[in-house]
Amino acid sequence: MKIKVLSAPEVAYLLRRELGPLRNWDDTLADMRRGRVEVNGDTLLPICKGKYAGAWRPMYAVADVLTFIAAVRAAALGTARHVPYQVKTAYTDPTDTRPWYTRKLSVASSTHVVFGSSARRARAFTSSV
Description:
By secondary structure, this protein is an alpha+beta fold. The protein has helices at 8-19, 25-34, 62-75, 118-128, and strands at 5-7, 48-52, 55-61, 87-91, 106-113.
């Protein structure tokens, strides 16, 4: 039987896009595989494993992912769809050659850039809150 499957990073992206930034979806999927977490009483488990980016990764059935999204959306009425990315402005020194994990950048607060048609929805969402 043929089924359509998605890799874990693709599922995490789809969950963020459809359910919003309720949580870190990559970590939530990993915790669901270990049996540590449920989202509103629902869990999403992989159906098989497949090659992705050169290694064996968990793969999720598309039908299971869509069912999970519908169940979470029905249980949590406040989930926002198509949440735009929040791009922040950071100040950095271009001559600094230290590795990224040793550089703490100061981030300008209250500068969020919203791209595309999602900007109207984001303004409407933030103004209603």
